[in-house]
């Protein structure tokens, strides 16, 4: 299986270098502000939550974990090429996640049926949860505000996050991946304000192999 990092690198190289300049400044500002530094870590207990899934049914974290461990992946939305690439990699790994007795759960603030559209396009074996107004991401320290430079650049290409998220606050989730065991304890955690980097599915699968179903 091709490393996700290599696939993300291809996406990065395919874009206008001007975006990297903008993103580098944005990421530097977020790091300086300590963004996501208080997000959950290995050994923490996941705070219970309930969210609607992409088909309109409410899903409780307690019900999910009653069935076994879960891989929880926060992503920005199907509009983001890095996120689509990451979710495609999870589509390939999902059968192994299931074989190991776990469930893959993607979380996005994107509304308007976009989460379900991505799930269907990738035929991904898992749940897509819709985090309306980034409520869960905010509780977990995973929501940041887009700065004016990025906002203007996005609007310049017709990318209005207010339409994607149903809010003009211009918050966006920090991509993050967690493995949570059936007792609600986080066994793997990776959250990076540089959204061009994501957790490798194989690293997550190794943790699942270690804890079992």
Instruction: Tell me the major beta sheet.
Output: 5 strands, mixed
CATH topology: Glutaredoxin
Arithmetic mean pLDDT: 96
| Count of all domains | 1
Strand content of the residues, in percent? 15-25%
- Label the structural class: alpha/beta
Q: Termini separation (Å)?
A: 23 Å
| Highest-level CATH class | Alpha Beta
Order of helices and strands: HHEEHEHEHEHEHHEEEH
The 3D shape can be described as globular
Structural summary, described in words:
This protein is of the alpha/beta class. It has a single domain (4-37, 52-211), classed as Glutaredoxin. Helix content is 43%, strand content 18%. A five-stranded mixed beta sheet has the order 5-4-3-8-9, with helices on one face. Helix 1 (4-14) packs antiparallel against helix 4.
Structure keywords:
Glutaredoxin, 213 residues, 18% strand, two-stranded antiparallel ribbon, alpha/beta, five-stranded mixed sheet
Short description:
The chain is an alpha/beta fold and 213 residues long. The chain has helices spanning 4-14, 17-33, 61-66, 81-99, 114-122, 135-139, 148-156, 161-165, 201-211, and strands at 50-52, 58-60, 70-74, 103-108, 127-130, 143-145, 171-173, 176-180, 186-191. A 5-stranded mixed sheet has the order 5-4-3-8-9, covered by helices on one side.
What is the topology?
Layout: H1 4-14, H2 17-33, E1 50-52, E2 58-60, H3 61-66, E3 70-74, H4 81-99, E4 103-108, H5 114-122, E5 127-130, H6 135-139, E6 143-145, H7 148-156, H8 161-165, E7 171-173, E8 176-180, E9 186-191, H9 201-211
Parallel strand pairs: 3-4, 4-5
Antiparallel strand pairs: 1-2, 3-8, 6-7, 8-9
Helix pairs in contact: 1-4, 4-9
